[in-house]
């Protein structure tokens, strides 16, 4: 099963150690065949709203910095527990903050 | 507490390969390594409630297990022998994992033991999980794993296995297919096997990055898996590749497959079986499959692994590339192969092709036979539904003239002309308005005797083949019972059926007399001298040829003097494009692919069907028969 893990922005400023730890973590998950895709998100972004026939595009940013999604990882694991475990290791590396994790259905 | 054991379970599945692999280096025994690792798991369950889960639980388990391994070694009598290892600098964990895979996939073990042990110690599945996936009792798997560990220990290959990568690849592919072949019912668990195989393959790709075949296997698995959602219908019935909803293919996995394919190419070397299969899978991701290319890839694959299944798949590809009749011709060889006797896909494929050439009665028979052989319920029902849906008129109630017309209608022009000559004659003499039921084998034999008293054996056999085919189609094969093919050469001792008789004398008089056009003479000569596949020879281009060396395509096709004499005249100054050209320029309706068009003459490449027809008409033989003599 696949899970999309989204990291909220904010938290501690990344230092060299964090970059190194993250790189090692990403490499390990790739080697284990678990990490399918990952990336960081531009906090600006834009928003599309549809009301009736009308579609509006609004440029961001929209929320408190700490509420915006800063990055994502798409992982393929056997169980919810494995997803939690990987999430836990990720949070240990990045420190205080919040992740949202959803199971992905499809394609 | 149950949360904790779930966490420990998840950690174990993610880390077991590295933990057990590291222990294997210390203790040189897979069974013992796994036991020590399990001890560490028990320790985690005892200690983590108090200490909390460590930041890196895998590292904690590894350290704990290694400490136990060292204790064990100190205690054991093997201490002297193993002691130096403790002093060795730690090797990278990757080497440990790779060595563990070589061990659990060691060829000394039977395939099913390799599969079970690999899932246990590399993928970290429990005995119960493996048993569920393979639909057997837990005890069976437990015994299988125990026996495997014992065999490894006794044969002394538990630690320094010969690095047989092909054996590992085979196990990974077996695991994948076990999951992929199942299509319905209790299959969620079995589908998980595909995921396990993918993980193992991806791991292997990192561990052995220079091996093209590893990347080939990964590419193959990723691309096959990308279709998993689209390959069965709502009722679990299989959906053939070309009827699948491509929108449901997983583009992410396809892209990963392509990336793996590129890595395989970078690794270099001649393509092995997995790279070739992956290349075929890549062809099938394209909107319009290049069937000529697929055929060529299957030919290359068949040279490496000539299993009946590969040959069957090649026949399917040939049918798409060169017409259903060409595919059926290839299948004829396979029908006598004992390995194919109980394989439901052979009659299934034949049924499909027979429908396409307009022989519904035989098609129904084949589909029903396929259904009896199919082991999967959904697949069986699907085959039976197709068989039942075929419109098979009861020919026996028809009048002879109408039956002949109906029989000839779907045939290709060449066959229709050849068979028509025989059948129209019979219909004229027996009476167009005679019901088929009024016709007897004796009457047909009489007509033969009157109509063709002094013909050559070859001509006689052609008439016999026509009436036999018609009799089978009409559901009364006994109509041809009184007629027998005649031996073609004086040397042939007993009467033989037409097909094998054709194999005995490929060089016909017609061919020798030189009335045959140059192109045909060159083609037949090349087939005979090179022994190459018809498809491969027809796809030759002028620029592929090395006339001085009498070879083409890196000497995979070589010829001798007769062909060498004919080729220069055939090429007659052309420098590129298809070697064998059709007689006419293509009509505006069906433009050929650029590769099949001669840039200098504007004519298209000679098709398999046309070449087969010309050969059959002139010599009475199939092209393949020419090649094999």
TrEMBL record, chain A:
Gene3D superfamilies linked to this entry: Dimeric alpha+beta barrel
Pfam families membership: YCII
Superkingdom classification of source: Bacteria
Domain YCII-related: 1-89
SUPFAM superfamilies: Dimeric alpha+beta barrel
Family statement: Belongs to the YciI family.
The protein's name: Uncharacterized conserved protein
Automatic annotation (TrEMBL), chain B:
RNA polymerase sigma factor 70 region 4 type domain mapped to chain residues: 101-152
Annotated ranges, domain DUF6596: 165-264
SUPFAM superfamilies: DNA breaking-rejoining enzymes, Sigma2 domain of RNA polymerase sigma factors, Sigma3 and sigma4 domains of RNA polymerase sigma factors
Stored Pfam families: DUF6596 (PF20239), Sigma70_r2 (PF04542), Sigma70_r4_2 (PF08281)
GO BP term, example: DNA-templated transcription initiation
Keyword annotations of the record: Sigma factor, Transcription, Transcription regulation
Domain of life: Bacteria
GO molecular-function terms, A-Z: DNA binding; sigma factor activity
Family: Belongs to the sigma-70 factor family. ECF subfamily.
Protein name as annotated: RNA polymerase sigma factor, sigma-70 family
Domain spans labelled RNA polymerase sigma-70 region: 17-77
Keyword RNA-binding: no
Region: Disordered, residue numbers: 578-597
């Amino acid at each position: 099963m696949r899970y999309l893990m989204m990291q909220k922005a904010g938290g501690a400023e990344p230092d060299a150690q964090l970059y190194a730890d993250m790189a090692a973590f990403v490499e390990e998950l790739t080697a284990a065949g678990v990490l399918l895709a990952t990336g960081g998100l531009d906090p600006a972004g834009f928003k599309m709203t549809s009301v009736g026939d009308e579609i509006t595009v609004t440029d961001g940013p929209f929320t408190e910095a700490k509420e915006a999604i800063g990055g994502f990882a798409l992982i393929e694991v056997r169980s919810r527990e494995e997803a939690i475990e990987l999430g836990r290791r990720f949070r240990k590396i990045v420190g205080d903050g919040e992740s949202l994790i959803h199971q992905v259905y499809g394609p | 507490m149950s949360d904790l054991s779930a966490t420990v379970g998840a950690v174990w599945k993610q880390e077991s390969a590295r933990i057990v692999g590291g222990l294997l280096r210390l203790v040189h025994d897979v069974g013992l390594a796994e036991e020590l690792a399990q001890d560490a798991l028990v320790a985690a369950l005892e200690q983590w409630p108090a200490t909390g889960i460590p930041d890196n639980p895998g590292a904690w388990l590894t350290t704990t297990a290694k400490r136990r391994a060292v204790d064990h070694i100190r205690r054991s009598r093997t201490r002297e022998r193993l002691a130096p290892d403790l002093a060795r600098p730690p090797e990278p964990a990757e080497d440990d994992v790779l060595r563990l895979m070589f061990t659990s996939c060691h060829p000394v073990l039977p395939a099913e033991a390799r599969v079970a042990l690999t899932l246990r110690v590399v993928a970290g599945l429990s005995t119960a999980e493996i048993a569920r996936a393979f639909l057997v009792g837990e005890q069976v798997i437990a015994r299988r794993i125990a026996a495997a560990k014992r065999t490894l220990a006794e044969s002394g290959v538990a630690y320094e296995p010969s690095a047989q990568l092909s054996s590992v690849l085979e196990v990974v592919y077996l695991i994948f297919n076990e999951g992929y072949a199942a299509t319905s019912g209790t299959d969620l668990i079995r589908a998980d096997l595909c995921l396990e195989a993918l993980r193992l393959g991806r791991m292997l790709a990192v561990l052995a990055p220079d091996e093209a075949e590893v990347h080939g296997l990964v590419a193959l698995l990723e691309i096959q898996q990308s279709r998993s959602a689209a390959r069965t219908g709502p009722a679990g019935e299989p959906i053939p590749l070309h009827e699948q909803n491509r929108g449901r293919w997983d583009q992410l996995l396809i892209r990963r497959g392509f990336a793996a394919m590129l890595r395989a190419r970078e690794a270099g070397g001649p393509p092995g079986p997995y790279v070739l299969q992956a290349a075929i899978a890549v062809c099938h991701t394209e909107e319009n499959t290049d069937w000529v290319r697929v055929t060529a890839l299957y030919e290359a694959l068949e040279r490496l692994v000539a299993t009946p299944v590969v040959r069957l798949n090649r026949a399917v590809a040939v049918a798409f590339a060169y017409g259903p009749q060409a595919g059926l011709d290839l299948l004829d060889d396979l029908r006598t192969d004992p390995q194919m006797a109980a394989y439901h896909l052979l009659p299934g494929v034949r049924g499909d092709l027979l429908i396409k050439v307009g022989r519904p009665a035989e098609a129904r028979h084949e589909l029903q036979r396929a259904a009896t052989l199919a082991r999967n319920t959904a697949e069986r029902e699907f085959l039976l539904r197709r068989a039942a849906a075929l419109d098979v008129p009861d020919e026996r109630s028809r009048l002879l003239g109408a039956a002949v017309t109906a029989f000839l209608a779907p045939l290709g022009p060449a066959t229709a002309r050849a068979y028509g000559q025989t059948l129209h004659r019979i219909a004229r003499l027996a009476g167009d308005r005679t019901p088929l039921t009024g016709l007897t084998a004796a009457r047909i034999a009489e007509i033969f005797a009157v109509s063709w008293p002094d013909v050559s054996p070859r001509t006689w056999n052609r008439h016999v083949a026509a009436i036999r085919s018609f009799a089978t189609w009409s559901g009364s094969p006994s109509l041809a019972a009184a007629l027998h093919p005649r031996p073609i050469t004086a040397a042939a001792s007993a009467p033989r059926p037409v097909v094998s008789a054709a194999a005995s004398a490929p060089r016909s008089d017609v061919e020798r007399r030189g009335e045959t056009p140059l192109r045909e003479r060159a083609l037949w000569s090349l087939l005979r001298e090179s022994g190459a596949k018809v498809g491969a020879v027809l796809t030759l281009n002028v620029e592929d040829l090395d006339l001085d060396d009498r070879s083409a395509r890196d000497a995979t096709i070589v010829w001798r003097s007769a062909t060498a004499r004919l080729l220069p005249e055939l090429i007659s100054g052309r420098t590129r494009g298809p070697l064998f050209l059709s007689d006419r320029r293509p009509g505006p309706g069906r433009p050929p692919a650029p590769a099949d068009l001669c840039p200098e003459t504007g004519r298209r490449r000679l098709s398999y069907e046309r070449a087969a027809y010309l050969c059959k008409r002139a010599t009475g033989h199939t092209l393949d028969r020419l090649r094999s003599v």
